[in-house]
Amino acid sequence: MNYYWVMNLPSSIKGKNVLITGGLGFIGSNLTHKCLELGAKVTIYDCLDPRSGGNMNNLGNIKSDIITILNDIRNFEGISSAILNKDILFNCAAYTSHPGAMKEPLIDIDVNCKGVINVLEAARRFNPEIKIVHVGTSTQIGKMQFDFVDEKHPEFPLDLYSANKSVSEKYVLIYGSAYKMDTTVIRLGNNYGPRSNIKNPDFGFVNYFIGLALQNKEITIFGNGNQFRNFSYVDDSILALIEAAQNEHANGKVFFAVANEQTTVAEIGEQIVKNIGGKLKFVPWPKERKVIEIGDAVISNEKIKKVLNWEPKTGLEEGLLKTKIYFSDKKKYYLD
Ligand SMILES: NC(=O)c1ccc[n+]([C@@H]2O[C@H](COP(=O)([O-])OP(=O)(O)OC[C@H]3O[C@@H](n4cnc5c(N)ncnc54)[C@H](O)[C@@H]3O)[C@@H](O)[C@H]2O)c1
User: Looking at ligand 1, which atom is closest to the CA of residue 191?
Assistant: First the structure.
């Protein structure tokens, strides 16, 4: 397919009514801040699940500038009423722990599959014109079968969270094709940055490393850390979500929004130590982690660059320093 014929459209989310499920979490709260900055009217819908990265402190000083609905995407009446009169829905609510999903498989399927169907059904019945941008994950592909991985790479996920994310992404696309709704999926890689869960190793490991570095503690890397990953600074990722929302050529499509370069886990550990603090320690893989480890993830961002004219802008050192600055006076809200 030739993607060159489409570029950014001169539309904007300014003045739009935006609903962000999971808006108290890492990705959703950064998105909330950016949407407000761009002049959108934002409503957050989030149940503040204690097993997630949801944190009221992520709102900082914008609490009174937005509407926050504390409710669950599994509550059909709740999400149906929240979706009314909205122009754009960013679906960032999810049960986001890979090991958590292995320990609590029924909760994961409940939130990440049934919850997504609930959101889609609410949109179909009560606001079918709404633009839906859903967040997928690069781990849906499982072990890499060729590089660079693109959107046509087969999906054989290795953990239940990734499997359920893979299925729910298909739901989003089915509602687009079967009901002619405007839906897009943006798959993200490993994100780091402000407002992340830096306390719990069961979420993104890079943010956990940053939390340890901020406390000048030892950072444990499993194995030799030689596996390549796509690490993205969160601001770049949320701009991909916003671009997908305002560009009609995103409809019906899946995109990887990942960094230009791959970095090994050991390298990111070294960069964190250099720019933030702590020290590295290499230990053997715990068995329960090894079985769900995907190995290298070398992913192409060519499609999103061509269709949406999106480009990651933040280098690793710059992103780590911005993250350090954000947390410097807020550690107590994230680590206590
Ligand atoms: N952070 C990453 O590196 C990354 C990478 C790939 C994909 N993603 C995807 O991005 C999205 C957001 O992830 P995140 O990192 O911000 O996670 P997070 O855990 O920080 O945030 C998830 C938010 O969803 C809320 N939530 C959970 N269950 C809910 C429910 N049933 N109803 C309403 N709200 C609920 C939580 O309270 C939390 O605020 C997810 O779909 C995730 O799969 C994230």
Answer: 3
The domain that holds 154 is classified in CATH as: 3.40.50.720
pTM above 0.90, yes or no: yes
CA of 71 to the centre of ligand 1 (A): 14
Please work out whether the CB of residue 26 comes within 6 Å of at least one atom of ligand 1. yes
* pLDDT per residue as tens digits for the range 26-37: 999 999 999 999
Best mutation site among 24, 75, 92, 200 for ligand 1 pocket (most ligand atoms within 8 Å of CB):
92
What is the count of structural domains for the chain? 1
Mean pLDDT estimate for the chain = 94
Q: Are 248 and 43 in contact (CB under 8 A)?
A: no
Do the domain assignments include residue 108?
A: yes
Show the domain range for 160. 17-335
Residue 207 lies in a domain: yes
Give the distance (Å) from ligand 1 centre to CA of residue 52.
7
